[in-house]
Design goal:
Strand content: over 45%
CATH architecture: Beta Barrel
Radius of gyration: 23 Å
CATH topology: Porin
Order of helices and strands: HHHEEEEEEEEEEHEEEEEHEEEEEEE
Number of domains: 1
Number of helices: 5
Distance between the termini: 21 Å
């Protein structure tokens, strides 16, 4: 017979694996998104210095040493509703297709009866992107539907060295599924379709510490390694015809064609420092600042692993590799919590991200810009051992004017002004047993 813990861990791992089919992230700050917990999100995602609930598995696993004594299970989901408007230089407007994305999160924490150690298992999505432009839009020869779905699984262990210092190590796995589509220009004839599908997986680690100066002040520091991944999949071409300017039908020998591909990718390394100040039993103030090594994203190269004819190679490698030349970025966030009563806590926050994507390589499948977010939320203790947390954020991107050569190879232009806002809501349920 299985023990209680074997059953709990098996169920948790099963839920985390099942989440892979539903996990979806809408990009922010490149293609990263942070929606791991409603309590932390209500504080503007500033939680590295506090890190005193099961979501510390993500934010700062060294903080797990603060929640010893019982076993902790935390689960919930977030909903994202992005909106993007494009206006070309002639004043014509287009809207990105409206989408809503659902992102679950789940954490399990226990000390297994040990004095100075705490362990955690978590699953959520912290990377990804999702955009959809109409098949007849201005962007159709650059991007129609583009999505990258990621599932992050984290196994962590934390050690309390003394009353002031705690340390942690986390081993992380990222599983990713990519799907990118666009139209093929065939002047005088119906457009064709280009579709890329691939899967990848990679491993990384995190090192973290928590320093408690006294009962009012504490600091958190975490380093996240890069994760190297190699997507393997296929490129599919559909609707090829004999348009004189392109004649894809002759070059590929059929109206439908496919070939195997590989794409090397990297999730960048980062470091984040957090500070938490609790002047009394009612107020908590948190501040985080983070550096992310987006400059590691230099290009995107699709490797065609099967033999191509000279004509096929000329078509498929037009613009391949694509230059990226992204930049390192800094982000900052602030959060506050007020205990209105023993059971009810009110929260608010602000966060700011700078974009790593330069104008010359900007594309509408990732319409990123410098962005500002405001958050509000609350936490309510349902019972002595259970609680619910909820949060909302308006994520507002600065208007961005683009004037580049992306799409020019298909007589297309993406030049114009982009306005974007994303509404996000989170709910998390917690239970101690």
């Amino acid at each position: 017979m299985w023990s209680k813990w074997e059953k709990i861990i098996s169920i948790t791992v099963g839920v985390v694996i099942a989440m892979a089919g539903n996990t979806f992230a809408a990009g922010s700050g490149g293609y990263r998104v942070e929606l791991p917990d409603a309590e932390a999100f209500g504080k503007g995602t500033a939680f590295v210095g506090e890190a005193n609930n099961p979501a510390a598995i993500y934010y700062n696993p060294a903080g797990l040493t603060q929640i010893k004594g019982k076993n902790h299970l935390s689960a919930g989901f977030s909903v994202l509703a992005p909106s993007v408007k494009y206006t070309d230089f002639a004043g014509n407007e287009s809207q990105m297709v409206r989408q809503n994305f659902l992102i679950p999160h789940l954490y399990l924490v226990s000390d297994f009866g040990l004095d100075d150690f705490v362990f955690g298992l978590g699953g959520m999505s912290s990377w990804g992107t999702g955009t959809a432009w109409a098949d007849d839009s201005f962007a159709k020869y650059v991007a129609t539907e583009s999505d990258v779905k990621n599932l992050d699984t984290m196994i962590t262990g934390a050690f309390k060295a003394n009353d002031q210092w705690s340390f942690a190590l986390s081993v992380d796995n990222d599983y990713s599924v990519a799907n990118k589509s666009k139209k093929l220009w065939q002047p005088g004839f119906a457009d064709g379709d280009f579709n890329l599908k691939g899967k990848a997986s990679g491993w990384g680690y995190r090192l973290a510490t928590l320093f408690k100066l006294n009962e009012r002040h504490q600091f958190g520091l975490m380093y996240r390694s890069s994760i190297q991944e190699k997507y393997r999949g296929k490129v599919y071409l559909h609707g090829l015809n004999a348009a004189p300017a392109t004649n894809y039908l002759a070059k590929f020998g059929a109206s439908e064609w496919e070939t195997k591909i590989a794409v090397q990718s990297e999730l960048p390394q980062s470091a984040v420092l957090g500070y938490s100040f609790q002047p009394d039993n009612k107020w908590t103030f948190n501040f985080d600042v983070e550096w992310m090594d987006w400059s590691s994203i230099e290009q995107e190269w699709i490797e065609f692993t099967e033999v191509l004819t000279e004509d096929q190679s000329a078509v498929l490698n037009n613009g391949n590799p694509a230059s990226r030349d992204w930049r390192d970025v800094w982000s900052a966030c602030f959060g506050v919590e007020y205990g209105l009563s023993e059971r009810l806590k009110l929260r608010g926050g602000y966060y700011y991200h700078t974009t790593p994507i330069p104008e010359e390589n900007w594309e509408p499948n990732l319409p990123d810009a410098n962005s500002h977010g405001v958050t509000a939320g609350f936490g309510y203790d349902l019972t002595e051992n259970s609680a619910i947390d909820m949060a909302y954020s308006a994520f507002i991107f600065e208007d961005r004017t683009i004037d580049n050569e992306v799409g020019s190879g298909s007589n297309a232009t993406i030049d114009g002004e982009y306005e974007q806002v994303t509404h996000m809501g989170l709910v998390t349920f917690s239970y101690k047993f």
